[in-house]
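Budget justification aside, the reviewers requested a transparent look at the raw inputs and outputs of the sequence design task funded under Objective 1. We therefore reproduce one unedited record. The lines immediately below are the structure tokens for a 320-residue chain.
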């Protein structure tokens, strides 16, 4: 039986106590985060669904969007939208929202954490203590200084700028590469990514994912960063050629890497796991209690705004 309210299909659970109440104020909520429930909803309710709740990590391709002829809004949990066919949705007049800004601090904090952990070998040092090697004949290797070093930021968006503010506190010399120079920053713009990599001690990837940046960091850029350089990725695994990265880390062409994201999550190449000059964490940039709550609330605010005004609150700008 269908209710008088329009239907909202939730492809992901929102772990906020108020989520069910807030979503059901305006919508008949269909839980579809299990494959079985989702398939059932597609079969039986596809004509009713006007709102889809999804996430940056949930595939929302054109084929899924096209199942719902009455779809008007897609509200996503997360800032990245390479998992969603936004262009296709917008071409059908469907609004798409994400959760920008609320996660900038945590992702930037994590980028700094990865820089420090990789350069100062903190994970390796912890493994050393736990393995009772401290005090043994096996010495612990020296790390690399972070303060006063040269930082290249690839992608000076909201998260990139938050990283730059933090790095300024470490007295780092900061330059950035973007598709276009920004007119609202005094940071030095480097139009050539290769020259930025040659110059930098640390290269932090904070750009968008998707086709426009696929394998932007290839063997050539990795080589330019060089044997003492450190690569940090908090954006998307697709931006780095993971095979080239693994090779460079193994043969000493690159000094180290701190990775939050991977080409084929949750799969991490075994070859990377065996290396001590790489720090591997499981896509946790936004994963704090405070930030995940704020992201969930912003999804609910977007759904409410759509229901009450017909416009989502934080739309993704129209893609060309
Ligand atoms: C994920 C992220 O959203 O916001 C993004 O783009 O990659 C993360 O914050 C999070 O893992 C939930 O899907």
């Amino acid at each position: 039986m269908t209710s008088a309210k329009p239907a909202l299909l939730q492809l992901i659970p929102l772990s906020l106590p108020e989520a069910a109440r807030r979503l059901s104020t305006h919508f008949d909520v269909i839980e579809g985060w299990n494959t079985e429930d989702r398939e059932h909803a597609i079969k039986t309710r596809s004509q009713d669904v006007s709102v889809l709740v999804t996430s940056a990590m949930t595939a929302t391709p054109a084929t899924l969007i096209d199942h719902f002829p009455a779809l008007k809004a897609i509200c996503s949990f997360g800032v990245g939208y390479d998992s969603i066919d936004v262009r296709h949705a917008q071409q059908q007049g469907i609004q798409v929202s994400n959760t920008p800004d609320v996660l900038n601090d945590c992702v930037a904090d994590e980028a700094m954490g990865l820089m420090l952990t990789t350069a100062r070998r903190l994970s390796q040092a912890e493994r050393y203590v736990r393995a009772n090697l401290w005090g043994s004949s096996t010495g612990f290797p020296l790390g690399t200084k972070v303060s006063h070093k040269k930082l290249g930021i690839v992608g000076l968006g909201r998260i990139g700028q938050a990283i730059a503010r933090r790095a300024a506190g470490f007295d780092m010399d900061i330059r950035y590469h973007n598709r276009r120079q920004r007119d609202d920053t005094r940071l030095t713009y480097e139009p050539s990514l290769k020259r930025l990599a040659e110059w930098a001690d640390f290269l932090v990837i904070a750009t968008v994912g998707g086709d426009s940046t696929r394998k932007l960091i290839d063997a050539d850029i990795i080589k330019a960063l060089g044997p003492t350089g450190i690569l940090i990725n908090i954006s998307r695994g697709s931006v780095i050629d993971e095979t080239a990265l693994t090779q460079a880390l193994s043969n000493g062409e690159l000094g180290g890497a701190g990775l939050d994201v991977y080409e084929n999550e949750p799969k991490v190449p075994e070859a990377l796991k065996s290396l001590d000059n790489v720090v591997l964490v499981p896509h946790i940039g936004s994963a704090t209690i405070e930030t995940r709550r704020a992201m969930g609330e912003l999804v609910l605010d977007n759904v409410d705004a759509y229901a009450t005004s017909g416009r989502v609150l934080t739309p993704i700008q129209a893609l060309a």
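The pocket of 2-keto-D-gluconic acid is lined by residues 55-57, 77-80, 103, 283, 285-286 (CB under 6 Å). The chain has a mean pLDDT of 97. Computational costs for records of this kind are itemized in the attached budget.
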